[in-house]
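In this section we walk through a basic example: taking a raw amino acid sequence and producing a predicted 3D structure, encoded as discrete structure tokens. The instruction is simple. Fold the sequence below.
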Amino acid sequence: MLRLIGGYLGLGMVAIAIILALSPLPLDFQHLFLGWGIIGASGALGYGLMGRWVQQLNQQQNYIDYLFGENPFPVWVCHRDTEQFLAVNRAAMATYGYSEAEFLQLRLGDLNGDRYSADGYANADHPPQLYHRTRTGQELTVELTQIACYYQNQPAQLMIVQDVTVQQQTALALQNQKVQYRILANNVPSSVVLLFDRDLYCTFAAGTDLQSFSRDHHSLEGRTLAEALPPEIQACFEPLHHRALEGESFTLELPLHDRIYLMSLLPIYDARGEVSQAMSIAQDITERKRLEAQLHRSAFYDPVTQLPNKTWFLEHLQLQLTCCQAGKTGFFSVFFLELERFNSVKYSLGHSWAVQMMVATAERLVSCLNLADPVARVGDHSLALLLTNLYTPLDATAIAEYIHQQLNQPLEIDSQELFSSVAIGIAVIDTPDRTEQSPEDVLQAADTAMNYARTQEGVNHAIFAPQMSEAAAARFVLEADLRGAIQSQAFEVHYQPIIALENLKLIGFEALMRWQHPRHGWIDPSRFIPVAEETGLMGLIDWWILGEACRQLAQWQKQWHGPQPLLLSVNVSGALLNQFGLRDRLRQVILTNHIPRGSLKLEITEPVLMQHPSAIQTILDPIHNLGIKLAVDDFGTGYSCLESLYHLPIDTIKIDPSFIRDMEHNADHLEMIRMMLNLAQSLNIEVTAEGIETPGQLAGLRSLACRYGQGYLFHAPVPAAQVLGLIERDRLWGWQSDNSPFPVE
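The resulting token sequence is shown next.
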């Protein structure tokens, strides 16, 4: 107010000075009176204006609050130094989705989106264009108008936000020549910006890194791409610019010489919306890539030993768990090893010796176990490793014992021999439920098992077993007994007749494994065969059964008087099919036992055929060429791909007993059997029905023209000693004489 009054008084004094300057001395009183009149008028005018100003001042605060709060654009005030929000209007809250209280807890940088660049704040010629992200994740392109001010006695910035997302999208779609040159004018460090027209003539070249292309902008502009750039660079650039001229925008990393460039290429459209030029922006990111590599190594590798660290191992373990859940990999085990002599070496020979001992131990483990992945350091004196396709306690124990044997050998460090004894804890991931664990829980389980091993006298390794149940304990015992049975050949092979249903004559037998446990008696195959398959023992069992059955077949052929050689059908697992040298070993079995061609048939289940449909043909074709027939066992259980029957050398399909069991009372099953028979007939494949138990089932299958069958209606599986009696019975009476009723065991 005082300034306003003084201003008007000053105006009066200026008037007096003008009168004095224009009037001759002595001063005329009329002029003096006129001067003082002007002063008075000025004062009156000032008084009137001052009153009006006071009235406006009283309304100013409410008006400012109204303009701030009701502004349709987001407006906020933030601290000039810390960028902490001090005040926001309703439009800002509505646009960004934060409440006022939440806004006041944020800083300006918290709104930045993924494409945010701090360069936006440095452009004084135009409101900076930034990328903000709302609370819901929506990205906005905004322009900020900034005004320096004070708010509540704090240095602040008043910012008005304009959402230009739509405008930016439109501008990018319809760039004109002016926009091109504004983009080119931007100063991008360590970069090169080039424009080429549709004839690949360079129309513009700029950037701080042109020297890396061995050219300056004068020699680049006006020349073709082939003329402007060295041949090795031109060979890389030309196909990229062709893609951009076809309307494609893309970014890639491009190594040139000893540098790495981030290349961004985009089409430039003219006023008609047609691609007229291609722009390429190459930024040298060599240093950034080097720093990224350093950061990655510091994040995932131990700086002392240079071994992968715990973070790396947990990520690797998480990936393995995820793949196992998806069925992409098999089960596995995690080994946790504690170097028991680490501290003693550390405090006697020094820390560097202890570190070298740890590194040498890890290298020994990688070498002796032939590991594809490195061993990780997961503690001060602890290592961890992951072994795939190792998912049984006995195998894990065998590996642990092997590790102890290897580490009992001295480690040579600087011509000094050191011994690295370890305590081992093992977490076996052998069920789908266990794959649901977190990697931290799995590693903790192995660590817990290691500590358990340390507390047990005479124990140097242990397998983690939470809530060990009697069933799980029995399974481990069964597995151990199964290994013992393999070593002692405690299995037996029983044989079930296969009958030609048309004339009810014997054509052969199916070999079935049986196991009489010394304490538990006969054990059902459904109990021990899955264990054998899981533990990798099934391949050994298969070869034993195959050899024993073929030996018996050679003897029975001498007593056989049928029109065709006696047929022997043997079940084999996927483990046997995947063994190296399978064909040669089968050939040796056939030659040794003088098995006629077509007399031996291998039965393979549908799941085995479907695991690797492309690879299985390369396995089966050589087997079939040996004169060995092939059958699909348990056909119709839902695993098979019918298309595979067209390509694989299959001679027989065996209808699963579940269909035969219900065929008399289930029309759907009867129709399924009919469809299988029609399919097999069209492919010239034989069909054997398994599980025939009633005369009604037999009659139904014969009415459908099913050629072969087996089941308890004819005979239960018998030991080898009773087979000759069945052969003689078939020769004398067949399988339908009243003198030879169907015996059932």
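Looking at the output, two observations stand out. Residues 304-466 form a domain with the Alpha-Beta Plaits fold (CATH 3.30.70.270). DSSP finds 27 helices and 27 strands in the chain. In the next section we compare this with other chains.
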